[in-house]
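Throughout this review, each integer encodes one residue's backbone shape. One record appears below.

===
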Amino acid sequence: MAVATLKCLKCCGTNAANETDCSKNPLFLSGDTSSASKTTYPVAVPRTAGANYSYELWIRYELDTPPDSYLQNFKIYGPDTRPDESGAQKLSIYLGTTDSGVTPTDSQSSIATLRADINYYSPGTACDMGVTPGDGKLEASGEKTNYIVMQLKVEQGAQSGSMTTQAFTLLYDEV
């Protein structure tokens, strides 16, 4: 029995076409880059009223090693609490999905529009992702899920460096 393996791809650039294996460790950054340096690309705390946004974080999963059958019903959920739990530090993560790539923006996202910790916090409330082949399943090496788009919102009064690691869970069925 073949065990399926998936690669987590961070997608940057025009139409989110630059796909880089991010070793399942994508970051919210102030640049549209595949860099893994949060110290080089930190998201600034606004000095005046309002909010700053990270560049949209575009990720998708690619089937690396196919199973004997196929994978379907892709969903994502998390984190189970707001990034700063109490909300006092004014950090929020927004999430959405799409089947076509656009260039990531650091303006408020038109795709990642719902707060993850309120809307997609458990297996029962997970966000459906879909897959690119259109048949609803991944069965061959190189096939990919649709894009997951996330964005970090940082409001005035946030404490610099206060966000802890945020865990999201990928769910799917192997048929």
Notes: The two ends are 12 Å apart (CA to CA). Residues 95 and 150 are 4 Å apart (CA to CA). Helices lie at 116-119.
